Amino acid sequence: MRAFMVERYGAEAGVRAAEVPQPEVGADDVLVRIHAASVNPLDLKIRDGDFKLILPYRVPFVLGNDLAGTVVEVGAAVTRFSVGDEVYSRPGKDRIGTFAELIAVRQDDVAPKPTTLTMTEAASLPLVALTAWQALVERAHVRPGQKVLIHAGSGGVGTIAVQLAKHLGAHVATTTSTANVDLVKSLGADVVVDYKKQAFETVLHDYDVVLDPLGGENLEKSLRVLKPGGKVISIAGPPDAAFARELGANPVLRTAMAVLSFRTRRRARRRRVTYEFLFMRADGDQLRELTALVDTGTIRPVIDRVFPFESTREALEYVEQGRAKAGKVVVTMT
């Protein structure tokens, strides 16, 4: 089958098209013929080797982290799906490889595709929608009336997180550029800070939750807008010891992660707030919850551009160069 491979780590090496063997299907797996897959910043970080210590993929490997497609084979122990089912998924972190014609995925990491969406639209959702869910529902327990700040509201995670936070009853603020102010308002944002005109930390205050997909200075400034007892959840900040424990990392790696996040955690404590790092995980049951929200119109995908599968390299470059204006970039099979 055709696939796009990482043969060695590094941006210079990039990815290349190749013919690879069809995946083996385990007893608990479904084999999915992929119709579309989306591009995430995570793909670039994996390609470049940024996560080698915590996600030690053995090169060569197929890149790609979410998909929509049709089940074409089921393992002997599969009970939740049948051949012909239309599904979408973010495969487990040890089973990536969606820039390919076929993939074998554990049945617990798969969910029925929203009936109201095309394959292309559905493929844009799994990773970013699960990230938003795990940050706002699972970690922050957002409740009606709370104030939630979603940074980069026009980005892949942001477009879904703004809608989900609004569905949860929160008062939602977001940051974006001038060109996307109307978009994020249409997604439900109550307060929009145009970062080209205003510094969010000077106009927002007393927030309960901040979701930060940017890290760095943006993360440090986010601590200032929280009220005592508030929480910032970052998908781009330094990993912490809790994440290391989730990974089952050895003591040396746990200590290293604790050191990496020490400065941020100390600053958070001084402000009587908390900092958490989130690396989303695959979860088919959570995707089913999100499917229901999509099919009722509560959450809608936002797609920036669609590339043919043969142009997967160009799609990765498009995202890497920051050319996407809003939402997700998707590659589709012919």
Secondary-structure blueprint:
Elements: E1 2-6, E2 16-19, E3 29-39, H1 41-48, E4 61-62, E5 67-74, E6 86-89, E7 102-106, E8 110-112, H2 119-123, H3 126-139, E9 147-150, H4 156-167, E10 171-176, H5 181-187, E11 191-194, H6 200-203, E12 207-212, H7 216-222, E13 226-234, H8 241-247, H9 251-260, H10 262-270, E14 274-277, H11 284-295, E15 303-308, H12 312-320, E16 328-332
Parallel strand pairs: 9-10, 9-12, 10-11, 12-13, 13-14, 15-16
Antiparallel strand pairs: 1-2, 1-4, 3-5, 3-7, 3-16, 5-6, 6-8
Helix pairs in contact: 3-4, 8-9
What does this structure look like?
Keywords: Oxidoreductase. This is NADP-dependent oxidoreductase. One of its GO terms (molecular function) is oxidoreductase activity. It is an enzyme of class 1 (oxidoreductase). Residues 10-331 form the Enoyl reductase (ER) domain. The protein is an alpha/beta fold and 334 residues long. The protein folds into two domains: 2-124 and 301-332, Medium-chain alcohol dehydrogenases, catalytic domain (Quinone Oxidoreductase, Chain A, domain 1), CATH 3.90.180.10; 127-277, NAD(P)-binding Rossmann-like Domain (Rossmann fold). It has twelve helices and 16 strands. It has helices at residues 41-48, 119-123, 126-139, 156-167, 181-187, 200-203, 216-222, 241-247, 251-260, 262-270, 284-295, 312-320, and strands at residues 2-6, 16-19, 29-39, 61-62, 67-74, 86-89, 102-106, 110-112, 147-150, 171-176, 191-194, 207-212, 226-234, 274-277, 303-308, 328-332. The strands form three sheets. Strands 3, 5, 6, 7, 8, 15 and 16 form a seven-stranded mixed β-sheet that branches. A six-stranded parallel β-sheet has the order 11-10-9-12-13-14, sandwiched between helices. α3 (126-139) crosses α4 and α8 packs antiparallel against α9. The protein starts with a strand and ends with a strand. The mean pLDDT is 96.
